[in-house]
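Request: When convenient, would you put together a sequence paired with its C-alpha cells?
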Amino acid sequence: MDRVRENVSAADRIGPVLTSGFSITVLMWLVGYAAHQPGLSMPPVLTFGLLIACMLAGGFVAVRIGGLSRAAAVGAGAVSGLVNLLILGSLLGGRQRDAMLPAELARVALVWAAATVLLGAIVVGIGGLLAPRDHDRAGTRCAGGNWPMRFACVAVLATLLLLSVGGVVTGFQAGLAVPDWPNTYGYNMFLFPLSKMTGGIYYEHSHRLFGVLVGLTTLTLAVYLTRVERRGWVRAMIWLILLVVCVQGLLGALRVTGKFTLSTAREELAPNLTLAVVHGVLAQAILSGLACLAVVLSRRWATAPSRVEHERAGTDAQLGGVCVLLALMQILAGAMLRHFSWGLYLHLSLAGLVVGLVGLYAIRIWSLYDDHAPLQRMGAVLVSVLGLQLLLGFTALGGLMLQNPGGAIPAARVLITTAHQTTGAILLALTSTTLLWHLRLVRPRRAFVSNHDASAAAEVSQKESAPAADAG
C-alpha cells in the first residue's frame, strides 16, 4: 500500500485534491445561488447550514468514493475555501465596510480569508473522517483514478451551471441590470455587497461571478493538464478552450457597455444585443469543447482498439457532422428569438430538422454499431435527451403563446425556457461527443483493393477463361 502511494507523482497527488475541491465549490455555489433567489427569503442561518452540509458531503464522497486520504480531503477543503474567496468581498457587508479605512478593511479581509480557507479545510476534513474507508483499496483507487478526465467533467458541470444562470438572466431580461463592467455600480466586481444584490441585479451580477468561476476552473485545468498530459494536441486543445473562454468574457462585457469603459452613466454606454447572441451561442460551443476534452481524456478513449471498417461509417459520419451544424444553427435561432423576439418560424423549422436528423443519427448509432459499446450508449442517451428537449420545446412554446405582453415575467416560464436552452446545449455536446466517438472507433470500408490483390484477381480470371478459349 505504501509503495503505491510512493509511486504516485506530485502531479497525480494534486489531481484528486483539485478535482474534489472544485467539485465541492461548484456544489456550494449552486446551493447558494438557489438559496438567495429574489423572493425566496431563505434565512442566512439556513443557507449557511446548507453550505456546511455541502462541505461535509463533499469530504465524505471524496474519501468514500474518490478514494482520497483524509489528509487529501483536508487539502480539497482548503482549495474550496480558496476558490470561495471570489465571493468573500460580497459577504463582508455594505455600509460598515464602506466606512472602514483601507488599512482596517485589509486587516478584516485577511482575517476573513484565512478563516474561509481554514473553515473549508476543517469541515471537509470532518466529512472525510465520517466516511468508512477501506484502507487496503482506497489509496490504490485514488492513485488509479483518471483525475484529468474527472477534473474536465467538473469544468463541464461548472459551465453547464453558468449556462443555466445566464439563461435566467435572459429570461428575466436582466442583462442590463448592471450598467458597468468590470465594476458593478462603481464597486469592484468582487466587492459588491450581497445586500445590494436584489432583483435583476442579483441575476446579472451572480452570472458574472459564475463566469469568473468557470474561467478559474478552466485555467486551473489547463495548468494541471500541462503538467500531466503527454499528448501535445490535448494540451493545445485545453489552452484553446481557455482562450475562447477569455474571449467569451470580453464579449459579455462589450454586450453591456458597447466599449471598454469604466463609466456607469447609461447615456455613455452602447449595449449590443448582437454581441449578446454571439455570447450565448459561444457559451454552448465552449460546453461542447469541454465535453469533447473529457472524452479524449477518458481511459476508454486511450485503450480503444484501432478503428475498424464499417460499410456505413462514412455515411453516418457525414450525417453526424450535419447534425452538429444543425444543432448550432438551432441554438443561434433560439438566441435570436430570445433576444430579438424574431425568428419563431425559423426556430420551429430548424427544430423539425434537428428532431428528424439527430433522431435518425442517434437511432443508427444505437442500432448499427452493436460491437461498439460507447457508440451504443451515446446513441441511447442522445435519443433520450432529444425526446426531453422536444417536450420542453412544446412547453416553452405554450408559455410563449400565453405570455402577457407588458406584464410581469412569470418565474415558471423562465424556468421552462432556461431548461429548454440548457437541454439544447446538452444536446449539442452529446451530438459532438457521439460524432467524436464515431470517428475514433470506425472508419469507412475501403473502396479499392491493393496492387497485390488486383494481380491475384487477374491471374484467377485468366485461369478461368483459359478452358473456354481452348474449347473454342
